[in-house]
């Protein structure tokens, strides 16, 4: 993607052009900082995936092909706990459901067809959506989406490999506290979403349901059952406290 | 092909299909407050359940061990706005340290 798609407007450029250029620099800087911050914790994903029993190729496949951090962590969480493949797929899919909402908002902004639309769909994650909706100008919003999406994709995959190699070298996961690191990773993904009272209530109920079912249900099922709590509360609660990703509302992005 | 590979590829296809669905359906289908609210809360519920299971369970039993202290430290770090990587590494260090001490 060209950094400066605007035609040069004379040696100095009009004031409007310099304003545009400054805005573009600002967007790219934003995209870069989000990409680095997010990409680096691909290390924790890679290490935890190997600790959960996946091999290097499977770990890389998740980051390359699934590319949505919350779902990736959930997938290895269920697999690591001995859950069935079906439970792992279902949990990853449910956690990825918010991406459909982001996709709808980004499609309206990008208006691409064909291969570009598919590429945009693959890069539709918390971070790319958040940077896009934070821009006031649609041109900058598009730039923000692509730069952030491509930046996170590159670094996330690079650091996934680094993490997987490190995790492989470590050996016994529990000795290095990697099981606790996985719990902390989920807490880190959850934390920015606990703003509202409803969210806090649902989170507390979800923990209780999951732990209550753990001794009696097969691994993976307690986590899925907790999603039912969310559907019940979300169906009834009339106050839109967790808004759709309209401009300014997608600020809780902490996972690709 | 092993069942793990099937699950990896199946989950990847599913997650991509969900993203693409958002790009393909008319925006108003998904823009309903109820749909948006449930999607947001499902994310919260699943992540919270994963925190619970990953902190308190071991082989199908509910247990309390070094992980609880580690996650508590992680929560404090998050409250102090520590970066994600710092939070995760801190939790690992606390759990590994407690286990090394016995």
Automatic annotation (TrEMBL), chain A:
GO terms for biological process: L-valine transmembrane transport. GO terms for cellular component: plasma membrane. Belongs to the AzlC family. Keywords: Cell membrane, Membrane, Transmembrane, Transmembrane helix, Transport. Residues 1-21 are annotated as: Disordered. Signal peptide: none annotated. The lineage of its organism: Bacteria, Bacillati, Actinomycetota, Actinomycetes, Micrococcales. Its main location: membrane. InterPro entries: Brnchd-chn_aa_trnsp_permease. This is AzlC family ABC transporter permease. The chain crosses the membrane at residues 34-54, 74-96, 145-167, 173-191, 203-235. It is a multi-pass membrane protein. It is found in: Cell membrane.
From TrEMBL, chain B:
This is AzlD domain-containing protein. Keywords: Membrane, Transmembrane, Transmembrane helix. It holds the Pfam family AzlD. The keyword Transmembrane helix applies. The chain crosses the membrane at residues 6-26, 38-56, 68-98.
């Amino acid at each position: 993607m060209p950094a400066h798609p605007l035609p040069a407007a004379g040696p100095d450029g009009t004031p409007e052009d310099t304003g545009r250029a400054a805005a573009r620099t600002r967007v790219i800087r934003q995209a870069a900082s989000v990409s680095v911050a997010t990409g680096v914790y691909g290390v924790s994903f890679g290490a935890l995936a190997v600790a959960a029993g996946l091999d290097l190729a499977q770990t890389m496949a998740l980051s390359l092909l699934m590319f949505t951090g919350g779902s990736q962590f959930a997938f290895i969480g269920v697999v690591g706990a001995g859950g069935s493949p079906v439970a792992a797929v279902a949990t990853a899919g449910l956690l990825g459901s918010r991406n459909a909402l982001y996709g709808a908002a980004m499609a309206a902004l990008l208006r691409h067809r064909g291969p570009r639309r598919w590429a945009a769909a693959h890069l539709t994650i918390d971070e790319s959506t958040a940077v896009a909706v934070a821009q006031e100008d649609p041109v900058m919003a598009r730039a923000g989406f692509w730069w952030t999406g491509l930046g996170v994709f590159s670094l996330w995959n690079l650091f996934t490999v680094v993490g997987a190699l490190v995790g492989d070298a470590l050996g016994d996961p529990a000795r290095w506290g990697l099981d606790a690191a996985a719990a902390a990773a989920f807490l880190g993904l959850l934390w920015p979403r606990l703003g509202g009272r409803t969210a806090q209530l649902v989170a507390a109920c979800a923990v209780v349901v999951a732990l209550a079912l753990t001794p009696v249900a097969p691994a993976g099922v307690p986590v899925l059952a907790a999603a039912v709590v969310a559907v019940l509360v979300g169906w009834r609660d009339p106050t839109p406290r967790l808004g759709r990703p309209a401009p300014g509302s997608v600020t809780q992005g902490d996972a690709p | 092909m092993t069942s793990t590979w099937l699950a990896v590829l199946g989950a990847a296809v599913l997650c991509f299909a969900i993203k693409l669905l958002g790009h393909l359906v008319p925006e108003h289908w998904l823009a309903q407050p109820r749909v948006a609210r449930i999607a947001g809360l499902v994310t919260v519920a699943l992540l919270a359940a994963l925190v619970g299971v990953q902190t308190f369970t071991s082989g199908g039993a509910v247990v309390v061990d070094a992980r609880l202290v580690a996650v508590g430290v992680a929560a404090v770090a998050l409250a102090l706005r520590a970066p994600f990587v710092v939070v995760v590494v801190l939790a690992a260090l606390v759990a590994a340290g407690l286990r090394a001490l016995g």
